[in-house]
Each structure stands twice: as structure tokens, then as C-alpha cells.
């Protein structure tokens, strides 16, 4: 939202699994071409593409529904490492809210020895990470992130 508010031309790339993208069927027949995405609403098992991103890399492993969440993590980590090596840019992961798959992303980032910043008051996985670091355990209400 900040990039949009300040009319930034900085690209913001979203990497997301096709199998949980709401309205994905309108995107698939037009591979390699510019398409107009309607911004379908969140569903019980999926999510819309974030309109604040300028570009998207959609990862398709053939799985649809909730099991597709997290299928983008390995590609994201490899792409981040490649860009970092080629451009000499450091990687810092920012965790704002997040779901159970966020923990897999955090793990991949930690294994690559990259720093992680967690916004603890944002809720979700960020709160679970904060609670675990402080107490070594999760309260019952955050067990879904374990």
C-alpha cells in the first residue's frame, strides 16, 4: 500500500501457488500474455492475488485447494538466493501475520542464514513465532501454527 501511496515505480513481485488463487481459471488459458484479473474475493480454501503487487510468479504443481499452500516456498527461496547472488542484494524476510505455510518460509530463510524480522503485533504466524521465542511453547489458541 505504501508503494502505491507514494506512486513508487519499484516492482513488487508476488509468488503464489496457482492451486489456491481465486479466479485462477481466468488466468490459465492466457499463459505468456497480459490478462486482466478481477481480484476474486477470498474463499474458504483460496485467496485472491494481492492488488498491491506489480507482478506475479504463479507456481503450478498440479495441486488445487488447501494442499497447494506452500508449494511456492522452494521456488521463492531459490529465486531470492539467485537475485541476491547476482545483484549483491541482501535478503531480509519480513513476517507480517501469515498462516501455517509462513513457518515453512521462515524455516527456509533461517536455513539460508538470512535475517528475519517479525512484526509480533500483526497476529497469525508472526504472533506464534514471537510466543515460541519468548516461552519455548505455544498457547492453545496458536497451536494451529505448530
Automatic annotation (TrEMBL):
Residues 7-129 form the TRPM SLOG domain. InterPro entries: TRPM (IPR050927), TRPM_SLOG (IPR041491). One of its GO terms (cellular component) is plasma membrane. GO terms for molecular function: ligand-gated calcium channel activity. Coiled coil: none annotated. It holds the Pfam family LSDAT_euk. This is TRPM SLOG domain-containing protein. It comes from Haptolina brevifila.
